[in-house]
Each structure stands twice: as C-alpha cells, then as structure tokens.
Batch of 3 targets.
Target 1
Amino acid sequence: MTKNSLLGVVIIGRNEGERLIKCIQSAREISDLVVYVDSGSADTSVERARELGCLCIELDMAVPFTAARARNVGWRKLAEKHADVQFVHFVDGDCEIISDWVEQALQFFAQHDNHAVVCGRRVERYSDRSIYNRLCDIEWNTPVGEAKACGGDAIIRVSALQAVNGYRDDFIAGEEPEMCLRMRKQSWKIERIDADMTIHDAAMTTFSQWWKRSKRAGFAFALGAYVHGADTERHWVKETLKALVWGGVLPFTILMLSAINAWFLLLIVIYPVQWYRLTRLTYIDADVRAQWSFFIVLGKFAEFTGVCEFYWKKITKRRMHLIEYK
C-alpha cells in the first residue's frame, strides 16, 4: 500500500513486548507519522518504539491513567507536529493493522464528508486458544453499516476530534462510545465497513481475566448512563439496568422469597431458560453457541459488580482506577 501523508497513527500501550513491535511495524507500513504513547512500561517498549521510528510520549503516571487520556495526548501531538494530517488511525499496542483495510476506509471518507469515524472488524489472533479469546472474536464482529460507536481501533477525522475536543480523559472505560455519542450530536456519522481492520491478541486464558473484563463492561455501562443517561438516546441505561436486574435484583429477590417458602428457589430456572433462549440465536456459530450463551448469562453477575463499584466510588468520592484484565 502507498503511504498516505494525510494519515497518522497513534498507538497506546504498556508492557506489550513483541506485540507492540508487530503493531508498530504494521503502522509504519501505512504511515511515516506514528506516535507511540506509553503508560509506564517496565520493559523496553519506549526504546524499541524509538528505534522503529516512532515519536514517543511517556505519560506522567502521577496523573491517573486512562486510555482516553493516552489517545488524546497522542492525536494532539500528531496534529501539533503535522498540521496537514486529516485522519488519525488509533490502534492499541496489542493489535496489528491490516494494511489493505486502510485504503478502503480512506476511500469511504473521500465519498462521505459527514463521517467522523470509519472502523472495520477487529479479528482475534488466537481465537482457538481459549473460550475467552473466542468470546472476544465474536464480540468484535459488529454489524456492517452505520453504527453508534467504534472501539479502540478506528480511523477518525482530525476535524471531528477537534470539534468535540477528543475523548474524555476521566473515562476509565467506554470512552469511545461516549465520544462517538458527542460526535453524533453534532451530526457526524460513524460507519463500520466490511473489512478486517486489525488483528488483536487478547491473551485471555483464565476465568479471572474474563470476569475482570466483564466487570469493566458493567462499570462502563454505569459511567456512560450516569453522564448521558438523561439524554434522549438514554445512553447505556438499558445495559446498566440489565446488569442490575439479572446480576443483582433477580437473585436477591429469589433468595428473599425462598426465606418465606423454599419453593421460590425454583424461580432460579429463569437463568437456564434465558440461556436456552440465547442458544437459539442463529448469528452465533453453532459450535460455540451454548458456551457463548452461558457466558452472556454469567457475565451479568460480573457486570453487576462493575455497576456497583462505579456507584460506590461516586457515593464515597473515591478515585476511579482502571480495571485491567491483563
């Protein structure tokens, strides 16, 4: 692919090792303008990134870290150094960019002036190594067409970033949908095109990793609903309520009723019924449908803990820290 001088790349990461090297090499294939933002790596990430030609920024870790803050620092430095850059490809350091997709995305931008964000499909590198990696691969496979939000990997217009002042630094999770919501309020559009975009390495092999990641999702739902839930769109209110009902209200109610009469414990059958209902969804591959459904149901308990943690920290005014699964 011919490098496009209007496109820059912002990579964020910490202790990604060889995954970061692959990420940078793939970024250098599409652009000479690559910024790497490091968030306190203890390995040689910064040194290796410099050797590979990146402009490196080391975040001040005295300030609470968020991916949103890292991305903001990156794109603003890129825009400052290269005023002619019109698009920024954001990518996480555990991903590798598939170069063919970039040309398709830029062609789409050329034909759609009102689009702020174009994304493709993030593909899991080792989806067969664990059910948790496979779950990520299913999650990445979002519908093609106009979308409400993108994930961490996407190409975004600099003018759109400037119009909304980028991500919110204080969002420790769910920062991309929150920013996309503000963009859409300004009549910008987000598109998911039919192209594989990046190869991701979740390296998620244990139940505890999956639980933390699901807990983070619940935290993100509650945070998004707290900030934008009163808007017409009711941002992530439904997702927050689902986590509260399925992960907390229903089991608590069943336990309380069973104290009156043990027969009420039979109400717990609602969970296997929900599992069965989900196994009938045909857009999930048949070979993994039963497992996927099981983790969707179980995940509501993890999301519930994330929602509770958010509100507990809001009530007690405690600092909100990133919930990391690896």
Note: The longest strand covers residues 189-200.
Target 2
Amino acid sequence: MSVRRDAWAIYRESLPVLLIALCGGLFAGLVLEELVEAVEEYPGLLVMMPVFLATRGNVYGALGGRIASGLHQGLIEPQFHPSPRLLNAVLASFVNGIGVSVLIGVITWVALVALPGWSPASLVVLVAIMFVAGTLTSVVMIVGLLSLVFAGFRYGYDPDNLVGPIVTTLGDVFGMTFLVFSVWLVGLVV
C-alpha cells in the first residue's frame, strides 16, 4: 500500500468514530449542567471531575491498547471467550479504575483541607461519590470498549483507530452521567 492509501484508510476509519465522539462530548457537557447545583452542595466535586474523566481515558486507553495489540498479534480473539490474557487485562483495568477513583476522592479532600480558605465536603461523601461513579463507569467502559473494538475488528477496522475515540466518548458520556447519578445516590444516603 502507498502512504496516501494508508493515510486515507486511517482517515476513513477514524472520521465516523470521531464524529460520534464529538456528539458524545457535547452530550457530556449537557450532563455537566446537572452538576452545577451539586457543586455548591458538595464542595470539591468540581475539583474531582476533570481528574476523574482524565483517568477514565488513562486506564481504559491502556486496556484498549492491550486489546488492539492482542487482536493484531492473534493472541486475543474478537469475542467474549474467557482467555487468560483478556481476563487479566480486564481485571487489572477494573481494579485500577475503581482504585484510582477512590484515590481521587481522598487526594482531593486532603488537598482542599490543606489549602487555606477551602471547606470541602466530608471525606466519606467525596470517596462514596467517586466509588460509585468509578465502579459504574468501569463496568460500562470495559463492556463498551470490548464490544465496539471487537465488532470493529470483525468488520475490518483497525482497532488502533477506534480505541482513542471510543474510550474518550464512553468515558465522557458515562463518566458524567454516573457522576450525576452517584451525587444523587449519595445525597439520598447522607
């Protein structure tokens, strides 16, 4: 293949997914509007939000890269069969996604308590919000990422062109949605 043909193939495969990612980002911005009132009720929530969304991309981008490499090398089949490689990658991402979420709540609380003039919500509230949102997004990110990458691979798409936009879109849309849900849920309990 020529360089021009390779570039066109990458562009052709990436453009539709990037357009969907654009719409997902706009949707996530609309969901953010729902958090405005909660920011006043739970100080520190706005500090955690960008870190939470960024870590979705970091943790599940790494998972997507492992899956894409495994598909290219023939080490992973594009289906939900319990292979040790797939299970290990998924389990590690799940634990990392939840662990990092809880850590975000703790570090945010510690940082805001240490800074003069800040009065964050309680540690339990911030950690609970992050735990619920982290757990729910971990499940959706894993199932969604694997489903879309496997389907794309079966239809001849390069998974390397799909992973970034899929992770970004799923992370933003479901991250924001589950943040709103976790704030609501923690508000019911607290």
Note: The mean pLDDT is 89.
Target 3
Amino acid sequence: MFDISFTEMILIAVVALIVIGPERLPKVARTAGHLLGRLQRYVSDVKSDINREIQLDELKKLQAEIQESARSVEQSLNSEMLAARQAVAQTAQALDREVKAAAESSQAEAATPATTGGPAPAAQPPAAPGAPDKPGGTA
C-alpha cells in the first residue's frame, strides 16, 4: 500500500516512543492496528463491491448482445421461412397450371378423334355362348 522501508518504520517508531511515551505507546499501537485493520477491510469491501458492479455491467451487456443476436437469428429465420413458403407456393401454382394444361390437352386430344370422323375402332364380334372368355383358353 505505502512504500515504506524498514529503516523508515524504525524511525517512525522511535519518534512515536519519544512523543507518546512508553506508557501509552502499546495502547496507541493497538488502536492504530485496529484502525488499520478496519481500513483494510473497508477498502477490500469497496473493491469487491466495485468488482461485483463491473461484473454485473458486463453480464448486462452480454445479455443485451445475446438478446440482439437471438432477435437477428429469429428475423433471418422468419425471412427464410417466408421465402421458402413463397417458393413452395410458386412451385405448387406452376405444377397446378401444368396439370390443368395437361388435363386440357388430353381432353382436347380425346375429343379430336370422335369429332373428325376418323375410322372407328374395329368392333369385337360378340362371344358365342359357352365359348371361353379368353382366346386360347379352356372352358
């Protein structure tokens, strides 16, 4: 705490012995020791309080940073989810259009041979009674 050498402490003790006297010197030294101990405890308490406050401030800053990063992650996640939903919706709409177009074209192709008057498919002669259902099969 203080930069006092051993010789300086001896000098202070000799001056105190001369000024205070040998009868009161032990009582004064004891009182000075108690006061110095109290001062050291008080300084230690103040240091620990300051350290706690600094740590509390650091924790609050860390908490704010974590909350900010959590918000940014949540926002980016929400935007990615929205983009994915839009992509899925667009894909579904495109597939729906393709299916409708394919259905319309197949309906148009099915309607075309009947209206053009093209050759009709050959009719199967009716099966004779008692004949097998399949050609080449046995009854």
Note: The chain has a mean pLDDT of 84.
